[in-house]
Request: fold
Amino acid sequence: MIKTEINLQKYFKIDIPLKNHIVFESEVNQRGLQYKKIKETQITSSISYFILKTDFEIIDKILIENHIVANTNDGNYNDFRDTRKFIKICLLIAILIITIILLFFIVERFLY
Reply:
C-alpha cells in the first residue's frame, strides 16, 4: 500500500463494489501492485482505489478474470448482473399472477 500523498498524474482512480473488494485486494496484493485505498460512504457502496497508471493493463486483467464490475467515474455504477436477476424475479411473479387469474376464470366458467 502506498503511504504517501496521491499524485493524480501518476495514478488513476477505480471504484470497486464492496461485494468484490476482498477478491480485488487479494489479487492486487498477490501481484505486488501498489495502491492507496479510500473508503467511500455507504451511499455509493464502493471503495475507491488509486493505482499506478502503468499497472492499468494488469488491473484490467484482474477485473475481467474475476468478473468484477468496476467504475472509473465518480458516479454510481450499475451491476447489470444484479439488475438481470431482479427482472427475472419480476417476470416470474407476473407470470405466476397471470396464471392464477386465468385459472380462476377457467374454473369459474366451468362451474357456472
The chain has two domains: 1-77, 79-112.
